[in-house]
Amino acid sequence: MFRKENNTKKSAREIDRKREAELKKGKTKKKDTPQKRQVKRTTIQTLPYECFVSNYVVLLKSNVKIGRETANLYSKTYLVPDVNYSALTKEQQLEKMQIYIDLLNGFDSTVSLQVTMLNSKINKEDFENKLLLKNKNDGLDAERQEFNEILHDKIMHGQNGIQCRKFITVTVAAINFEAASTRFFNIESHLISCLNRLGTELITLNANDRVRLMADILRDVDSKISPVSRGEFARRAEKMICCPDYFEFKKDYFMYNDKYARCLYFKRLPQSGFVFTPQNYDMLYPEVSVNIFMDGYA
Q1: DSSP summary character for residue 87
Q2: Is-contact 117 278, C-beta < 8 A?
Q3: Alpha carbon of residue 88 to chain centroid
Q4: With a threshold of 0.90, does the pTM exceed it?
Q5: Which domain holds residue 216?
Q6: What span, in angstroms and rounded, lies between the C-alpha atoms of 236 and 3?
Q7: Structure-model confidence comparison of residues 75 and 20, the more confident one
């Protein structure tokens, strides 16, 4: 017997389904293995840096993959003394604002910039040591005491005991510390040039200054901290001094010690200028501090 030949013509849909089925057979799906997330077990581990590599430079993270290359992330923090905008005319204020924009635009995509505007209580011990007059037993101590009381009342009560400090933290990627130092030198030249035009200066924070700053943010400005020795920095013992007691994260905010914090992300910045400047920062409540982070390695 002969098999009856099937002369029914297949439709284009059936042919295409057969072709796609054959293609799927030849492909082997590769399962993506997601990276395991490392959970921080202690508050010390939440501090986002590894160690101090000099008296001014911090190693944030080593062996970071940036494109096809591997590098280390180093950072330096600078204090920027306040600039008085209220005594300037509108044209002078616009001129200062343009200088500030030029300062920010001077950083390329290989540099991460962090602008911190920190409102905090005045440290009473530092206030007494730096500003108040000392008795000299020369018959004028009564006048000095009266002057100290007036100064104390003006600063502690007139401004609610709040001080505003502005910091710039710069992070660069480099193969080693020597290469990072060269990049910091060029960046500091740009910062000094712009800040001189603004009528202020650039002050580099050393290792103990940065520990004090972290303690002011994460603990309390009145917490007593002894100077950290080189051996303690080598053992990374300074993290015990400045880490908070706890972190607790909620849906859209988090808490540490007696403070509340929230992270906001700007999808798009205006092309005409920076979204947040020191001039309009004065409109915030005195208890509010702002930290603006522009990541060049994201």
Answers
A1: T
A2: yes
A3: 30
A4: no
A5: 40-135+142-294
A6: 86
A7: 75
